[in-house]
Structure to design on (83 residues):
C-alpha cells in the first residue's frame, strides 16, 4: 500500500474492490449498451490483473477480441478490447 501512497496515481483509482477492479467492473457492465458494431477500448491495468480482467471482459463483451500490450519494462500494462 505504501507504494500507492508514494505514486502520482490517485489511490482510489488503484484500490477499489476485489483485485482493485471495482471501477472497471462497473464500467464494463455499462459499456455494451453504448458501443457501436466496431470498437476499440484500451484500459491500463496492473500486470497481476490479467486473468481477472480477461474474465470480466468475457462476461460483459463475449464477442470481443482481447489482447495485452506490454510497457517498456516488458510488463503487461494495457488490455486492448476490440470488435
Amino acid at each position: 500500500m505504501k507504494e500507492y501512497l508514494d505514486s502520482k496515481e490517485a489511490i482510489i483509482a488503484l484500490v477499489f474492490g476485489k483485485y482493485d477492479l471495482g471501477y472497471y467492473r462497473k464500467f464494463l457492465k455499462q459499456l455494451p449498451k453504448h458501443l457501436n458494431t466496431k470498437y476499440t477500448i484500451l484500459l491500463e491495468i496492473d500486470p497481476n490483473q490479467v486473468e481477472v480482467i480477461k474474465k470480466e471482459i468475457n462476461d460483459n463483451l463475449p464477442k470481443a477480441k482481447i489482447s495485452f500490450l506490454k510497457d517498456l519494462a516488458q510488463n503487461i500494462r494495457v488490455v486492448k478490447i476490440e470488435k
About this structure: The first helix runs from residue 2 to 6. The mean pLDDT is 82. DSSP finds four helices and three strands in the chain.
